[in-house]
Amino acid sequence: MKPMLAQKDFEHRLLTLRNGQVGLRSALTTEAAPQGEDSIITFTASDATLDRYNEIIDPAGWKLGNYLKNPVFQADHEYCIEDTIGKAIRVWVDGGKLRQTIQFATGINPLADMAYKLYRGGFLNAVSVGFIPIRWENGGDAVGYRRKYLEVELVELSAVAVPANPNALQDAIEDGTISGDEIDRLKNFRQQHVPPANAPAPGGADSAGLVTQLQTTLAMMRGHS
Fold first, then answer.
1. Tens-place pLDDT, residues 99-156
2. In this structure, how many other beta carbons lie within 10 angstroms of the beta carbon of residue 221?
3. Distance between CA atoms of 87 and 69, rounded to whole angstroms?
């Protein structure tokens, strides 16, 4: 039986995840390994290290079954159609690391094209997992962590701009990895895809996101041209 996730245990961090359940999110710095020209990247997330909340997720504790029933790859935990930028074709744990092979929806969604180029060029360097803690232990100064999650259920996986450096996004524009025309196409694409009235609410925690940073960076550059 899953424990109740009380506000007192997890402070302000509780969020509604893609499946409607309450859980947590954590950004994981990754190593990205592109595979050929098929818009596929395998991410290796070293999540046995301390995160910014001074917590650890034990890699052996990941439960992947429910996520694999609908393994979409989103942008910034947003749940609208235009923010679906790919799918996980494999998710597994190996050598103490959570690994994900993502096929980006390039040629279909302009945001997927852009995200793929940014990862491939090294301008983005993180993914974010949404998960439900099942079993955990509290730590302290003696063990070097505040909390260690022993068993967690993966619910969602997203590309995130944070902790990407905004200067890196400007570099991506300046060196031609992405163009102003691509950003304009993305803006038009998003404007054309208005979500239905009953669509789930956006994720919220990372909703400033990649698109806003790119549009802001481009606007600043155009203002100084």
1. 999 999 999 999 999 999 999 998 888 888 999 999 999 998 899 999 999 999 999 9
2. 13
3. 11
Q: Of the candidates 32, 31, 22, 19, which has an alpha carbon nearest to the alpha carbon of residue 74?
A: 19
Q: How far apart are CA 136 and CA 148, in angstroms?
A: 6
Contacting residues for 46 by C-beta, under 8 A, at least 6 apart? 28, 29, 30, 31, 96, 97
Token pair recorded at residue 219 = 């606007």
Residue 147: HSE in the Cβ half-sphere, 13 Å Cα cutoff: 12
Q: Which of 127, 111, 109, 116 lies closest to 31, judged by CA?
A: 127
By the 8 A CB rule, do 15 and 130 touch?
yes
Q: What is the mean pLDDT of each run of 10 residues along the chain (225 residues)?
A: 66 87 87 88 83 89 95 90 92 92 94 92 87 93 92 93 61 85 81 57 42 65 56
Written as one letter, the residue type at 62 is W
| 3-state DSSP of the chain | CCCCCCHHHHHHHCEECCCCCEEEEEEEEEEEEECCCCCEEEEEECCCCCCCCCEEECHHHEECHHHHCCCEEEECCCCCHHHEEEEEEEEEEECCEEEEEEEECCCCCHHHHHHHHHHHCCCCCEEEEEEEEEEEEEEECCCCEEEEEEEEEEEEEEECCCCCCHHHHHHHHHCCCCCHHHHHHHHHHHHHCCCCCCCCCCCCCCCCHHHHHHHHHHHHHHHCC
